[in-house]
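Q: How would the structure tokens look for this protein?
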Amino acid sequence: MRKILTFLLPLLLLPGLANAHTFQGETGFLSGIFHPVLGFDHLLAMLCVGIVSAQMGGRAIWTVPLTFVSVMGLGGFFGMQNIPIPGVEYGIALSVLILGLAVASGKKIHFLAVYLGVAFFAVFHGHAHGAEMPAMADPLIFSLGFLIGTAVIHLVGVGIGLTAAHIQNGMQTLRYVGAGIAGIGVYIVQILVKF
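A: Here is the predicted structure in token form.
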């Protein structure tokens, strides 16, 4: 527990988390892959999606992440077309909070609530990725990269969730991690409210 807190507490001192959706750099496939990883709030939310799907078990292990990636692609299309979606940053911040709480609950959540919640938050994440796509990027190549990058993060989350179930105190530790992620979500929301 102490190691987890030692890792998470310094992150709360990073006010740039609230404005993590400004992409600069390369424009190719690898840039698309790394885009979700470099947005810390994206990374946390996507890990939580994988962990929640592992907590649910069965087919949810692949259908929950697939739902997120599919709907995120639609949100990305909206972002690339400059179709406005209100409150994108708030939606992303709330996804960190709510998905962190889902992990912290340590319980199987009703499947309909999970799928609807994941789809809802995926639109915001996708829109942010699509809207921030560098002007020089090939939309298809970059989008394919960020979709694959997201799927890989989900797989890491699934691995974390499945591994926690097989180690001593793993599920309890995972609940603490979820609570820490939810705390970061609260912090990001409060930064956005101040702006």
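The two ends are 33 Å apart (CA to CA).

The chain has one domain: 39-194.

Upvote if useful.
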